[in-house]
Amino acid sequence: MNFDTDDNELEPIGWDAIDGALRRIYCDREPKHFGTILPMSLGGNAPLQGISVYKNLAPQPHYHYVTYGFSELYEKETDDPEFSGYGFELTFRLACSLDAPEDPPVWPLNFLQNLARYVFSSGNIFDERHHLPFNGPIAMNEVTDITAGFFFLDPELDVIDTPNGQVKFLQLVGLATDEYDLVQKGYFRPIAARVTALTPLAITDIYRVSILDNPAVLAAITSVDPQSQQNQVFGTLAQWREVDGRLEIEIGATVVSQLKTMINSVLQQDKPVIVYGKNTAVLFTVDESLKWGVDDTSLEVTLPPESIIRLGQSLQPIRGEYTISDFPAIVLKVIPVDIKDGAGNIISTIG
């Protein structure tokens, strides 16, 4: 989805709708607004056109970040009348001290721009109850175990109707590493319920310890059977090609750990495992024999159960080619993925 606009000529009706939603909470308070000098729609590197931040002292001191740019900020351009743009904006509530400065930390600005860069480049959108790993700490220069997160409706902003369609305000809530491990194993609801109850408005404290450090909490969560486990992983690369009867599949190194977990658990429940890339998808399913089929945007690969489990065991988040001895026609290539900061600079490479 691409919102090409000349901001000087179009009415900011979508922007005004977001401002109106914020005024219902903050009245005439002016936020710290961080505008993008050259947005992606005009050839720049930043997908979002701006992020507003409010410092709140109640019910607990925190900074409230709100994006502008996932929805249509100016006149309607997309064909779907129900939703404005991607149909959402992101929010994030970061815990701070009572005497913290009015100027908020800038790393969440870069982090939110990175999430936007993923959405704009892949076409994969976020929604309530979606969860994702961050491929590292949420803040690179902080000592924190918050390495993943999930989305739920911002408890104050919720959903608004705009002249361009509906906009959900999806609040990102941080998860500790072992909390996310349990989420992937089917315990999303009890983890999410306990994490959101830690603070008012589900404020993220990046210095908190995991709720699972309490043995009683871990025992209570795992004492019941897991619910339906996640069977989808979202990356930036999922592509393939057929060469002389050989199928070569390429995936990014960032999805390998999740894919291994899913292969070992979800497939045993007769559910497909799906890896999403940029408007593409690779599905892995189980049957008695090898086969694959391709349409315009997806590939479905079927393997015997013991073969796909061996594939999961051999996969590593390291550049290379991975095969199954009894099916050498299938090659899974793991491609390194660059992790970038909000300015688009490479700060690390996975794989």
Q: What spatial form do the alpha-carbon principal axes imply? A: globular
End-to-end Cα distance, whole Å, is: 29 Å
Regarding quaternary structure, what we see is single chain
**By helix and strand content, what is the structural category?**
alpha+beta
Helical content class:
10-25%
The proportion of residues in beta strands is: 25-35%
Organism: Blastopirellula marina
Protein name: Branched-chain alpha-keto acid dehydrogenase subunit E2
Domain Suppressor of fused-like: 45-208
Describe the structure.
The chain is an alpha+beta fold and 351 residues long. It has two domains: 13-222, no CATH class; 232-338, Gyrase A, domain 2 (2-Layer Sandwich). It is built from seven helices and 19 strands. It has helices spanning 13-26, 107-122, 177-184, 188-196, 215-222, 256-265, 305-314, and strands at 32-35, 50-56, 62-68, 83-95, 131-133, 146-153, 159-162, 165-176, 232-234, 238-243, 246-252, 273-276, 281-286, 291-294, 298-303, 320-324, 327-335, 337-340, 346-350. The strands form four sheets. Strands 1, 2, 3, 4, 5, 6, 7 and 8 form an eight-stranded mixed β-sheet that branches. The chain has a five-stranded mixed β-sheet with strand order 9-12-13-15-14. A hairpin with a 5-residue loop joins strand 18 and strand 19 (346-350).
Question: How are the secondary structure elements laid out?
Answer:
Elements: H1 13-26, E1 32-35, E2 50-56, E3 62-68, E4 83-95, H2 107-122, E5 131-133, E6 146-153, E7 159-162, E8 165-176, H3 177-184, H4 188-196, H5 215-222, E9 232-234, E10 238-243, E11 246-252, H6 256-265, E12 273-276, E13 281-286, E14 291-294, E15 298-303, H7 305-314, E16 320-324, E17 327-335, E18 337-340, E19 346-350
Parallel strand pairs: 4-8, 9-12, 11-17, 13-15
Antiparallel strand pairs: 1-2, 2-3, 3-4, 5-6, 6-8, 7-8, 10-11, 12-13, 14-15, 16-17, 18-19
